[in-house]
Amino acid sequence: MNFNPDLCRNESEVESKLLVGYLLPKLGYSPDTWHQEVRFGKIRLDFLAFVQKIPFKLDAKSPLGLVIEAKHPRKNLDKHIYQIRNYLTSLNIRYGLLTNGKELRIYQQKAGEVHLVFQCAGKDIDDRLPDIIQLIGRDFLQQQLLSPANTPSPLSPPLQTSQVLASTPSPALSMKTIAIYHNKGGVGKTTVSTNLAAAFSHKGYRTLLIDLDSQANSTFATGLIKFQFEEDDHLKDRNIYHAIASSDTNFIPDLVRESSYFNTPEIDVIPAHINLIKYQDPLNKMMASRTRLLTKLKRVENNYDLVIIDTPPSRDIYAEAALITADYLIIPSDLKPFANQGLPTVKEFITTINESRETFGKQPLEVLGVLASKISTNARYLEHSFPKQRAVISERYEMSLLESVIYDRTALSACFNQTVIVGDIEYPNPQSIFKYAETNRNAAQISALEFEVLADEILSKIGLIK
Ligand SMILES: Nc1ncnc2c1ncn2[C@@H]1O[C@H](COP(=O)(O)OP(=O)(O)OP(=O)(O)O)[C@@H](O)[C@H]1O
Ligand SMILES: [Mg+2]
């Protein structure tokens, strides 16, 4: 496949068509060796590629290989040299690639000095690929950086993993509610809801997770379903149904549970229950059942910064209540045909919900975008099919896509399926991806990082990162 610079009409096309779709695979970087929108304190890198695959560990001895900065094709690269210089020297990164699609430059940093070492026009990238690979191809860079002769420069800042992607909550927050919804089942709604709640909590935001799905998978995932016998079911009489069923009792603090083992710090959870199914008909008949959660959440708006609502894969009363309550919507999707074919129905649903919201003076639901989730890390798929699948969402379905991607990682199902044996009984003991990554490094840390990146993208979209 040849690269045609005319295909890149804006910065995001430079990122998707030149970098993700073409150059990173050609240079030998598989998806688990690069990250998009990586944040180090105040610095935000468009792309960071690692020479070491896993374990993902940043310290003075693990040099960072390559930072990539993409610009709009009309932007003059000369104006961004200072930016690359700053990244390379302050984070001790060896190479910086700066491109607007029309031109490509590579800068090298050694002992604090930054020099231009390669330059070519966008249309010549194909022909010059061997030179580019020799400089910043993953194998070549690995040899350069990981050879014993390569000692870290005295400038190396000792980076801790916890410093990566650090973001600080702004002082005066108003509570924001985000629903995670798609009418297609199994696309990762619960996985995203629970781990996103964990990511926000990690960043210091006071987070409440609400399970509005009778399957109660978020309730399970946060460790609230450990009982083995029906008589031990402590969720039956105090769950999200009770918030929706009454107006003057069962307020949020009465229903909240702490997910003590799932994540550190803990998050508050309002559980669901299988009984939600049988209460659906009576609730359906009452208009008020759609707005009670919203009203009750207003009473605790000083207690939480963020509320995440996990929803069922349907268009029932619970999904309605979720979308009426939320300020924002994220639509996880594996981008496969069935999930896509559900999108027009999601859009119609949003239109209907917005009509109801208007009647009581609530702003329309703000769709943050479709979130590519459970995405295969197969390099050929990512090179050929994934960019096309992403394009379909905006071109055919006219919906925006979040930049972040949640890849298909076995660690994400493994953390959900953790158990503990007490006596001779095995109890579920699920963990967030962050907790799981503390003891299972490797791919789990990469997945945790992907959730941090997603959390940062959302925080910046909803104005919670300064
Ligand atoms: N990114 C991922 N990587 C690996 N496995 C995943 C990922 N996302 C989800 N899964 C797995 O796929 C299955 C379905 O995921 P999940 O329950 O999150 O989907 P859902 O949209 O909430 O489903 P439902 O519509 O039934 O509520 C689960 O077994 C989960 O562990
Ligand atoms: Mg679910």
Could you tell me the CATH topology label of the largest domain.
Answer: Rossmann fold
- Portion of residues in beta strands equals 15-25%
Going by CATH, the homologous superfamily of the largest domain would be P-loop containing nucleotide triphosphate hydrolases
Small ligands present: adenosine-5'-triphosphate, magnesium ion
The CATH class designation of the largest domain is Alpha Beta
CATH architecture of the largest domain: 3-Layer(aba) Sandwich
Uncertain runs: 54-61, 150-167
Q: Report the sheet with the most strands, covering strand number, pairing sense and barrel closure.
A: 8 strands, mixed
What is the number of independent domains? 2
Helix share of residues? 25-40%
Shape annotation: globular
Mean pLDDT: 88
Distance between the termini: 41 Å
DSSP summary: helix tally? 17
Q: Indicate the radius of gyration in whole angstroms.
A: 24 Å
Give the assembly state of these chains.
single chain
Summarize the structure.
The chain folds into two domains: 5-163, Alpha-Beta Complex (tt1808, chain A); 176-461, P-loop containing nucleotide triphosphate hydrolases (Rossmann fold, 3-Layer(aba) Sandwich).
Characterization of this structure:
The chain is of the alpha/beta class. The chain folds into two domains: 159 residues, tt1808, chain A (Alpha-Beta Complex); 286 residues, P-loop containing nucleotide triphosphate hydrolases (Rossmann fold, 3-Layer(aba) Sandwich). Strands 9-10-8-11-7-12-13-14 form an eight-stranded mixed sheet, sandwiched between helices. A hairpin with a 2-residue loop joins β15 and β16. About 6% of the residues have low confidence. The chain binds adenosine-5'-triphosphate (ATP) and magnesium ion. The site of magnesium ion (MG) has 5 residues, from α5.
